[in-house]
Design goal:
Elements: H1 4-39, H2 43-53, E1 57-60, E2 65-67, H3 68-73, E3 77-78, H4 80-83, E4 85-92, H5 94-101, H6 108-120, H7 128-139, H8 146-149, H9 164-193, E5 199-202, E6 208-214, H10 219-227, E7 232-237, H11 240-265, H12 276-294, H13 298-305, H14 307-311, E8 313-314, E9 316-318, E10 324-326, E11 331-336, H15 340-348, H16 350-353, E12 361-364, E13 375-382, E14 392-393, E15 397-404, E16 411-417, H17 419-432, E17 442-446, E18 449-452, E19 464-467, H18 473-485, E20 492-500, H19 502-531, H20 533-555, E21 559-560, H21 562-591, H22 596-628, H23 632-665, H24 691-711, E22 715-716, H25 718-721, E23 723-730, H26 736-747, E24 752-755, E25 761-766, H27 775-789, E26 797-805, H28 807-836, H29 839-863, E27 872-873, H30 875-903, H31 906-909, H32 913-923, H33 925-945, H34 951-976
Parallel strand pairs: 3-21, 22-27
Antiparallel strand pairs: 1-2, 4-6, 4-20, 5-6, 7-13, 7-14, 7-17, 8-11, 9-10, 11-13, 12-13, 15-16, 16-19, 17-18, 20-26, 23-25, 23-26, 24-25
Amino acid sequence: MQGKGLIKFLVVVVTIACLYSLSFTFVTRKVERDAAAYAKGDFAKEKAYLDSMAGEVVYNLGIAKYTYREAKGNEIALGLDLKGGMNVTMEVSLQELVRNLANNPKDENFNKALENANVRSRTSQSGYVSLFVEEFKKLSPNATLASFFATKDNSAYVTANSTDSQVESFLQRESTNAIDNSFKVLRTRIDKFGVTSPNIQLQQGTNRILIELPGVTDEDRVRKLLQGSARLEFWETYHNVEIYPMLENVNGALAATLKETEKATGTTADTTQADSTDAGLLATLGASQDSLDASDSSANQLALQNPLFNVLRPATAMGPNNQPMLAPGPIVGYAQLRDTAKVNRYLASSAVKQIIPANVKLLWGVKPNPQTPEQLELYAVKPSGVDAGPILGGNVITDAKDDFDPQSNSPMVTMYMNSEGAREWRRITATASADANNKQAIAIVLDGVVYSAPTVQGEIPNGVSQITGNFTIEDTKDLANVLKAGRLPTTAKIVEEAVVGPSLGQAAIDAGINSSVIGLLVVLIFMIVYYNRAGLVANIAVVFNVFFIMGVLASLNAVLTLPGIAGIVLTIGTAVDANVLIYERIREELRLGKSIRQAISDGYQHAMSSILDSQITTFLTGAILFFFGSGPILGFATTLMIGIITSLFTSIFISRIIFEWMLTKGWSITVSRPWSNHTFQNANYGFVRNRRKFYVISAAVVLIGIISIFTKGFSLGVDFQGGRTYTVRFEQPVNLEEVRSNLNEAFEMNTEVKTFGGDSQVRVTTAYQIEETSDEADQAVLEKLNSGLAKIQGNDYEIASSQKVGPTIANDMKTRAIYAGIASIVVIALYILLRFRKWQFSVAAAITTVHDIVIILALFSILDGIVPFALDVDQHFVAAILTVVGYSINDTVVVFDRLREYLGLSKYKKEDEGETINLAINKTLSRTVITSLTVIFVLGVLFVFGGEVIRGFSFAILVGIIVATYSSIFLAAPLIADLDTKKLDESPAADPRSKAPLKPAKA
């Protein structure tokens, strides 16, 4: 084998890299186990422990040290379905945006155009602004858009003479800005919320933002946090020297509290009688006492005497005589990120609240300074505006741009205000800069976090301000977006959400682990039983493959979901595909009388074309899934694509290295057992001769399926039809009809109720108030649900999970699913056309692919309500369909590759083409059957042990693999015989990558 040394080096490097990537997960899990042991079931105590560890070094590699926060960012994060939490899709209201940009006109046609565009946007792929402009022109052909949008606030972009095209461009730009700014605001809010491993994605080309919050339990708080309006405010500030005496008093009060606690108890403070805030304070102080007991050092003594200043360092600077002094400006202290929660508990205690006057507010900065990446600044602002609030609101901002200071060429921000804001700003800045020796700073605050606090250098008369400082380009972009967010003339609402309870998440973890382990064992055992010692080599490659998949996922910071685990399990089955191709080819070479060394070499060489073609087509379907999918489907697509790459690496290189080593050692290598040596060896079935019989069988099944599809239809999942879905778990088995009857009465409409994972658990789907996405509507639906469930006497229940999908989201998902299916067929057909350079191959592959899709759709329609598990057509079903498409093409390409090989040899050019096609099918039959069996084995395990959440998903793939195996044998290649075969003898020669003509085995 050429380049053996390089391949060995590559294997070692990849192995070390994967070990490094996975090591972070082991480190963070240990810290979390320690936290759980320390807390003993107290969630608040466990969270406080982890907060305190955030900035502590927990992983020391010598050349690099990682804090818990950094290690956490590099671990394999668990998705919502494995950990529990919330999955939320926010939608920015572009209808509200356009209306507000026009200052809420009363024109009937204008508002009708807004409504019509809103309705059309639910099913159209065009953007909302384009739809609005179309509707406006229909309703008001003689009016101009400028007559509505040429307002004072928009004067920099729209004038009375602006054309409709110019106004439309302005609206498109404003809608893009609104979506981007909403994204940044939401990201900042989520960072403040303190969720571990959150995921927030702007769905490109849409006005939607996907948010995943693993581990969240307070759903109401999340909804309020995400849906609240962005509050941009300007606050007057205090000088540090004015606030320091107050902080000294706070520090003294905290120290006194600890001393009194020690006198009263003689031990760590008892928090049972304290209010919740003081309980947190005393627990913190108690922890300090514990640390003192552990190590009676002078540092700990000082910490007990100065509890606040132990975690909040006063802002100081060097004075004229190199003596420390209080730093000028509004920053009053610095705290390590890990200590900010402790500072907040101190400041929120009742004892401290009595010291801090009402006209002082302490606010954190938005992020650490680059020079001190582990520290956060604390600012002191002055409530001096209306109702003791900010001095000015952010609604006066008309625009903000990131720019460069022409004098220093450093990044800055230019801020523009409307006329009302300019008048107030002139007064505010004049006051702030009146004392040349004591100029005040104005804090720019969004959602209670300080983004910047520039010092006012002089009166600003025209409302145009330049904000300079120690900014990077990214800082100015963020600050400009924050300022524009303050005038966001729109809101973001939750249009889809899924809530998964932690108990359901643990059940999903158990199901995923069980299915993975059992699936792996089944494949390993089968390979050894069927391929003897070569099977052991394949097993080593499979184990390496799983290890590499996990390592790559960790290095990509991927989120592991239950469909992702399903992708790994499926990859375990398909990972042996390349090995089977190689082994079957080796067996053919051995039957030609070659030595084992030569047979292995030729087997790898001759199988390479089929391996690459089959795996590339499957990879393409994974890429299409990744492009069109969202949420958990992305996890499945990611693991599928990674698995294909790693399986190619392990089956081609690692297994070859092992074989070379065994040959060097003189070990006997066997690729079969006596009973399996002649499997399908002399197969000579008349697939082509009898093809029309199979055409009739397939046509009959397709016809029955189409009739069922158009008459019975499908059971659409909530993500395709919209609505709210709840998983309800009862203590005892329930009567399904009783639950359905009670809920139909409660909702006053038909409600879908299905068993879900057993007789004591049901899934409820209702379209009640589906058009409403407000919190009030959510509560109303929940009340109806509880009123119906409460009628079931003597059977307590809990709502384990919930999901909400708005009609717009549902229609978009259906459209994307259709596009994904069409794209997969087109892309694969084009690939086959490029690789085989004959349209007959491409058309035959496309026909069999459509056949497989229709059969699966038909079975889901026919069997829905008959089988004892849910057969919903949803996103998971689309993933299953595309996976089957990839696998079907995988099988078909192997047959095509052998056929191309035969047609490139002069011997077969003179023979009947139908017989040549038939020979190609028979010669690849063992590979097709063996590979299908291994995949069916692991899918059977996934179906039985994978859990109810993905049972329909695994059933679709399982059935699809069987159908795909059938179509690749009985339909795909035989179809070529009916597609203008006159020119098949002009097919290109054998794969140009081969160095010599390929010799087929004798029939």
